[in-house]
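User: Design a sequence. Structure:
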């Protein structure tokens, strides 16, 4: 199998590394291998232990290669954390052709002009990850989705620019490079998750994807098939575990097991008589606790996360205003009852988002925690034109040192948000 026929997604999260290897067959993706390894090298999306992260990536790659039967040399890599931010920017250019017909080159120049809006102070410490076109204005005609072929004199691009901290991008890239993997591109985690769990109808109506990771919760909002908002909060599922550990006076390891095996997001649905003996989870524990007490701890923290998310929606006046509601992804979305709690807190429809099913052995991927890694391989398909739905430009940092020159600058990034 040719190297170019292999598509790999690498999601480096706060508690684990997930790797998905697919083969491109006649425009479709077939799963060859998927692997997950624990990783404690990141905190809130930021590398804090390079050796731990490199080892986790290496182990995931090694096992995925054994299952897939092909070498893994390159990957699309996720990037997250609350250092990843978004800002609106507009770029204005004159149409270059004498007959006034807009070309793809004019669009590129307008998008480049929008990037120049980023302030010098910001540009000194941050790097552009994505430039997402929201709409275009040609002379006095606004809200144009694709102006190519139209006639006019002045073209304006309304964009959402997503940036990340240069040192944090550099450290993440270094970990991947030292694990022997060439980075084909960096993709913001919530955009990848949205790619895996949303359909065109939801994006048209208006929807928010809430990706609950270990240390952060990311939010992206789509409306009229356009990305209109992106944000990240420094709180996630790990804080729920911490609260359980404090409430039960037990270790983080035991608290995590209790959350996964007995956790529930809505306390009122739990019988007050139901109890668990912690000695069944750990021989170092002897106490008995009520499952309802655990649910109350989980519900309190999850409500807090949802309230913070709702504040972000209020910033763009979309609280209670999204017909397609809330789609929850990430490992934190696996708590039973969490969709019901989200409906109550957001006053909107809510559901847990599962990744688009791929061909091959993909039962493992039927899990909201695999939304990002699935979205990464779908993102690569779009870049190659196998799926045509618009355009997003992405650039990897130009300021990383020589040892990371294998990281490609990615321009004319694929068709995804505009029809």
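Assistant: Done.
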């Amino acid at each position: 199998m040719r190297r170019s026929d292999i598509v790999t997604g690498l999601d480096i999260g706060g508690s684990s590394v997930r790797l998905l290897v697919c083969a491109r067959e006649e425009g479709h993706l077939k799963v060859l291998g998927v692997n997950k390894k624990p990783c404690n090298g990141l905190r809130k999306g930021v590398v804090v232990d390079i050796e731990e992260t490199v080892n986790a990536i290496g182990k995931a790659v090694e096992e995925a290669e054994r299952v897939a039967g092909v070498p893994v040399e390159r990957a699309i890599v996720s990037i997250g954390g609350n250092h990843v931010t978004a800002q609106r920017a507009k770029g204005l250019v004159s149409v270059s052709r004498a007959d006034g017909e807009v070309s793809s080159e004019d669009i590129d120049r307008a998008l480049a002009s929008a990037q120049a809006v980023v302030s010098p102070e910001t540009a000194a410490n941050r790097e552009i990850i994505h430039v997402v076109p929201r709409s275009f204005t040609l002379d006095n005609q606004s809200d144009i989705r694709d102006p190519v072929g139209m006639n006019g004199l002045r073209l304006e691009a309304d964009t959402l620019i997503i940036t990340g901290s240069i040192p944090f991008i550099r450290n993440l890239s270094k970990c991947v490079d030292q694990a022997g993997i060439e980075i084909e591109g960096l993709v913001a985690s919530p955009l990848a998750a949205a790619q895996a769990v949303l359909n065109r109808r939801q994006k048209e109506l208006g929807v928010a994807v809430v990706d609950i990771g270990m240390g952060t919760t990311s939010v992206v909002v789509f409306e009229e098939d356009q990305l209109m908002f992106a944000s990240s909060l420094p709180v996630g599922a790990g804080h729920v575990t911490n609260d359980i550990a404090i409430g039960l006076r037990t270790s983080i390891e035991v608290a995590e097991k209790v959350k996964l095996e007995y956790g529930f997001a809505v306390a009122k649905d739990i019988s007050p008589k139901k109890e668990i003996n912690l000695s069944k989870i750990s021989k170092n524990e002897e106490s008995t606790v009520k499952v309802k007490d655990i649910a109350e701890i989980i519900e309190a923290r999850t409500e807090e996360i949802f309230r913070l998310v709702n504040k972000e929606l209020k910033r763009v006046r979309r609280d209670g205003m999204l017909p397609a509601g809330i789609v929850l992804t990430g490992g934190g979305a696996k708590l039973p009852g969490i969709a019901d709690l989200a409906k109550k807190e957001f006053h909107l429809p809510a559901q847990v988002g599962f990744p688009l099913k791929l061909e091959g052995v993909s039962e493992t991927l039927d899990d909201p925690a695999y939304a990002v890694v699935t979205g990464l391989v779908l993102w690569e398909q779009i870049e190659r034109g196998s799926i045509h739905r618009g355009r997003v430009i992405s650039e990897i940092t130009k300021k990383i040192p020589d040892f990371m020159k294998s990281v490609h600058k990615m321009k004319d990034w694929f068709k995804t948000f505009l029809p």
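DSSP finds eleven helices and 20 strands in the chain. The radius of gyration is 22 Å.
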